[in-house]
Design goal:
single chain, about 350 residues, alpha/beta, 6-stranded parallel beta sheet, globular, binds zinc ion
Length: about 350
């Protein structure tokens, strides 16, 4: 007898209303539709976005809702039309549930799906004992990848990969990575996999810069030097071919554009509602530079990402700092730390 037939309730940490601590609640197990997969959560990453959701800066609906969009676990049961997964399979979840029929989905840009629902923002997420997603959003997690790493692959690493694809990084090109958090550590390793010649990592925290250096990047300490001037010096005046802005500050966005070489591409990933100034002629037109927006990632990019993690080319073992139980106080405290930028890498809930 499947577990959901015996025990129809589960524990979940939920946002009841914005600007209030999350609460642990007993909620009914999701009802598994014909094409759905119910997953027993083994790891759920706590993401900076979750702090924005709790604070109400980024709207979450409908409330109450279980947060958590970085999830790996074990298949508990599947709907009758699902043939590719069985109970017991190790899986990780793409956080978007999409319709597969709208114009955006048909064109392969499913992050803009008109009916798209993000797990942990528009539908119940993985801060829970179980989570349910359509089979289309479920991916096999190779046994070489621990659940915690599978979970964070689904957000920060996937976004970094999508940014490098959007920036069209080619072998032999140079890259500047602005911000060495969870995304940055993945971006540096992925740039290496793409065959980047020189990888520069810009941050203001010495421990982050030394971590970037250990991964083979050239550290640029923006607390002590002007990073644009330093990048020009390090590239003999050329500038960099690709800049990734992973922080979401107007000043670093401006730097990411200013440091570009001729026909360079700046991919903006960090989120801000503020504006930033550039000199159109000198910094864009004259160089045929490009400023590229990056939003989420695509399900089709995940199998390659999982393969790089499986074979060790992408090593996330140092990216996870701490694990927590499914405990509301512990999770709220972790979100407080994220609010105050006190977290170096990732915290993962292990229910
Ligand atoms: Zn995330
Ligand atoms: Zn769609």
């Amino acid at each position: 007898m499947p577990i959901h037939a015996i025990n129809p309730a589960m524990k979940a940490i939920r946002l009841l209303e914005p600007s209030r601590p999350l609460e642990l609640q007993d909620v009914p197990l999701p009802r598994v539709g014909p094409r759905d997969v119910l997953v027993r959560v083994k790891a759920a990453g706590i993401c900076h976005s979750d702090a924005h959701y709790r604070a109400g800066r980024s709207p979450v609906h409908p409330l109450p809702l279980s947060l958590g969009h970085e999830v790996a676990g074990i298949v508990e049961c599947v709907g009758p039309e699902v043939s590719q997964f069985c109970p017991g399979d190790r899986v990780c979840l793409h956080y978007l549930a999409t319709c597969d029929v709208c114009a955006h989905c048909q064109r392969g840009n499913e992050q803009f799906c008109l009916a798209g629902q993000m797990m942990g923002k528009h539908r119940d997420g993985g801060y829970a004992e179980f989570v349910m997603m359509p089979a289309r959003s479920v991916f096999a997690l190779p046994k070489e990848i621990p659940f915690e790493q599978g979970a964070i692959l689904m957000c920060s690493s996937a976004t970094s990969l999508h940014a490098l694809y959007k920036a069209r990084l080619r072998p032999g090109e140079s890259v500047a990575v602005f911000g060495v958090g969870g995304l940055g550590l993945s971006a540096i390793q992925l740039a290496k996999i793409f065959g980047a010649a020189d990888i520069f990592a810009i941050d203001i925290k010495p421990e982050k810069l030394s971590r970037a250096k250990n991964l083979g990047a050239v550290p640029v300490d923006a607390a002590n030097v002007n990073p644009v001037e330093e990048l020009r010096r390090l590239t003999n005046g050329r500038g960099v071919d690709v800049a990734l802005e992973l922080i979401g500050l107007p000043v670093t966005m401006r730097q990411a554009v200013s440091c570009l070489a001729i026909q360079g591409r700046a991919a903006l990933v960090g989120i801000t509602e503020k504006t930033f100034e550039i000199s159109p002629y000198l910094e864009v037109l004259n160089k045929e530079a490009e400023i590229i927006g990056v939003s989420d990632h695509l399900a089709q990019e995940l199998p390659q990402l999982l393969e790089w993690a499986r074979c060790g080319a992408l090593d996330l073992s140092r990216a996870i700092t701490r694990t927590l139980p499914l405990d509301a106080n512990a999770v709220n405290a972790a979100l407080d730390e994220l609010e105050n930028f006190e977290v170096d890498a990732r915290i993962v809930i292990k229910p």
